[in-house]
Every structure is written in C-alpha cells, then in structure tokens.
C-alpha cells in the first residue's frame, strides 16, 4: 500500500509534556476559530488539511507593491495612493520591517500565560506624524464588481489584520484601530492583453478590535493540551467531506 502522508515529517507539533516555547502562527489561530478539530489534528497530530494551490500572480502583486512602497519608505515620502485618499501617512521605516514581512518569522510576541509564541507576517505598516502605526494588508483579485470586505468568508481578512494590530501593540507600539486593505482588482475589459495586466487599486479602511485574541489564545492552548480530539467546526468543508466519504463503502452506479 502506498503511503501518501507521513505525520513525522510535520514540524512544530505541540507536546503537552514539553516546557518549550511553542510557535503558533496567525493563520493557525484562524484555523482554530474555523475548526478546532482540524486545528488539533494539524498542530497536535501532524495531520494537516490538503494544501491549496499557490496564488503566484497574487504573490507577484504583493512583491511589486512592497517594492513600490519601499521606495517611498526610503525617502520618507507620501505614496500617490495615500495622497489621493487624503491620508497624511508614510510607510513606516523600522529596522525590523523586513523581518516583520518574512513568512515564518513576522512580528512576534511570547504570550506569557500560555508559553505560545504568536507570530504573523505583515504586508506593510504606515505611520502618521504622531508616530501612530497603521497596519496594511495587500489583497488582489479579478472581478467585475467593486471590491469590498463585506463577504462572510472575508472575516479571515479582518481577523488577520486584528492579530497584526495586537502583535504590534504587544511589542510596545501605539497602533491605530484603523487599518487599510490595498485591494488590487485585475481588469478584464481591456481591448487586448498586450503582455500586461492592468489593475484598479482601491484603499479600504477597516476598524479592527483585538479584544477576542487573548481568550482565543488561551482556548487554543487548552485545546492542544487535551487528549481528546475536539468536535469539528459547524461549517468546516474538510470535516464534512471526510464524514461523507467515510459513509461510502462501495461506489454505486450513478453515485458520482
């Protein structure tokens, strides 16, 4: 029988007997909120959800945006997008900026009550004249309708920003409740491709609230400490698929 998965290859599994610091990313906190069962299987047992496809075009947009804002960071100048929205903000120039934006490193904080090292990689941070920081997240898509952050599934975007705000506050920075999504929408109504993809760029403000994070971290640790696999989230597609597939013992004609 072929082996398609080896749990022992998975790194950073939680050991309830260990006193070592355990790293918990922003995305794993979101996984816990979506489905405690999948979170437990992932971080405690090393059984992860199937990986999604990489969004290489989205990554390219992120990289180019970072380069663009970095030019203004070096000059302490206003980006035209911020000027267009009447915002007196500039990209924040800090020695740890590259570290904060690096995956698997990011902005970090050791939560003393749980010994969990919470971390997350920001896209950007802006600052005003009073040294107040504003978390910025880049998003890209291609759709005919106007982009927004009102869909139910976009709660993940909002939680993401709130965790970043919380992390920076834990590191001693004064952070505004207001964050910004730089949302790039690829246009398909052009006459031709001509080896380039054009985007409309919209700046969407969002007022975050991080009062849920502390209790969620404590609950996530309690989940990991348990020897019992928790129930799945009510809307977890992965758990619903497994449950449905487990009930099929023999393929019947016309079933699929």
TrEMBL record:
Residues 80-242 form the PD-(D/E)XK endonuclease-like domain. InterPro entries: PDDEXK-like_dom_sf, PDDEXK_AddAB-type. This is PD-(D/E)XK endonuclease-like domain-containing protein. It comes from Candidatus Falkowbacteria bacterium CG1_02_41_21.
